Each structure stands twice: as structure tokens, then as C-alpha cells.
Amino acid sequence: MTTGLITALKPRIHGISLGVFAADLGALRLAAHEAAGWGCGVLHFDVMDGVFVPQTIGGPGFVKALNIGAVRDVHLMIDHPERHVASYVDAGADAITVHAEAPGAAQAITTIRAAADKAGRPVLAGLGLMPGTGLDDVSDLLAMVPDMILVLSLDPRNAAAPDIPAACARISHLRDRFGPDGPVLAFDGGVTLASIPEIAACKPDLIVSGSAVFKADTPEHAFRTMADAMTD
Q1: Across the chain, what does the average pLDDT equal?
Q2: Which position has the higher pLDDT, 6 or 202?
Q3: 82 — phi, psi (to 5°)?
Q4: Domain count of the chain?
């Protein structure tokens, strides 16, 4: 995919990436349309296979069904993502993140880019980093210059609490490493109304939040408060 098309897509991937599977699963389309009315421009799809992480949810059918005009940001927490990424491109994903810790990550990034070229449209190839993964350990993947890097403050494979300061420091380090024209930098994990000011202060391009919005007494207010925190 040409650099120009990817560069044109990146500005749309900013603000709050709303974790749609935290909504009522029986009314996902309604929830997505309501979120669009709040000003949500990015929907986040956490896909989990019960192998790479213990939980199971998601699939390309959900991504295809929720085509409401928002950017579709797919986070694959799955084993051997290279076997599946093309199906998410076909389903309309605009960004697909695979985990550095998953076998086949490098091939998956290459496959995303090839599938995007075949589809004739830009798709960001993202790299997810668990908190225990050292940057030196994934230097070969970082050398591929992913279009997006998703920094997790917690590891869904265990019950450890989020380490927000460490994840914020990693965001800052990656910005210094890649410069202003580098990958989209995204933060995921432990995002609440209480923690959003600290997270927003490290200036990620994208912050993922789901439960803190959809489980709030007034989801629209929670979303707008988080979005406002990123513009303060």
C-alpha cells in the first residue's frame, strides 16, 4: 500500500477507540450508531481466541456487520494471526493489530499489507505490545515500522493490575524513537474516568476504552468526558 494512502488514513485514527464488545452484545449495531451520535469516529474490536488469551469473542463477521462509517480498529489477541488477518481486511477493517508475542507476528504484518494492496485500500498494520515485552526483544518487528503500535498497560493473560505509568512512559519512548511521522501510538488497558487525565497527558494518538463507557450510568457523558480529556 502506498505511503500516501496510509498517511491519509492515519489522521482519522485518533481520539477514543471505543471497545464495542463492552456494549450489550444483543444490540451492537444500535450501540455503534448511538456512539457515532456522540462523536465516536473509531470502533475497537477485541478479538480473542481462547488460546493466546483465555477469553473468546469476535470474528470478521462482527467487523463487517458494524460498517457504520467509523474507522474499524481490530485488535487480534489470537495465536498465529497470519492465518486470519486477510479475512479482516476483506471484512472492512481499517487497522489490524497483531501481538508481538504471538507466533507469526512478522508474517501477519506482511500479510496485512499484501491484503490491503490486493483490496486497493489502506489498512494500518499494527503491533501490540504486552507490558512484559521489552522493546529490545521485538527490535525485528519494530524495524518493520508498523503503522500503529498498541501499548497495553495490562496483560489479559494474567490477573495483574494495569501499570499505567509504565505504559505512559513507553508511549513517550516510542514517540521519541520514531519521531512525529512515526506510527500511530495507542494506549489500551485500565482506561477509566479516573485514569484518563494521566493517560491523556502522555499524548497518545488513540486511547482504547470500552467498559468504562458502556457500563457507566450515562455512557454518552463518559465518552465525551474521555474525548475532552484528550483535547485539553
Answers
A1: 96
A2: 202
A3: -60, -20
A4: 1
> For 217-229, what is the mean pLDDT?
98
Q: How many CB atoms lie within 10 A of CB 134?
A: 8
To the query of whether residue 188 is one of the catalytic residues in this protein, the response is yes
What was the pLDDT predicted at 232?
A: 78
Catalytic annotation present for 155: no
Residue tagged active-site, from 136, 188, 205, 217:
188
- Domain of residue 137 covers 3-229
72 touches 124 (CB < 8 A):
no
Residue 49, helix vs strand vs coil = strand
**Mean per-residue pLDDT, 17-35:** 97
Burial pattern 66-76, b for ≥16 Cβ within 10 A else e, equals: beeebbbbbbb
Q: In the prediction, which pLDDT does 7 show?
A: 87
With contact defined as beta carbons under 8 Å apart, do 155 and 128 qualify? no
**Is residue 4 scored above 80 in pLDDT?**
no
Tell me the backbone φ, ψ of residue 19, rounded to 5 degrees: -70, 95
Kind of pairing, strands 95-99 and 206-209?
A: unpaired
Is the separation of the CB atoms in 96 and 125 below 8 Å?
A: yes
CATH, residue 104: 3.20.20.70
Q: Which of 46, 94, 147, 163 is catalytic?
A: 46
pTM over cut 0.85 = yes
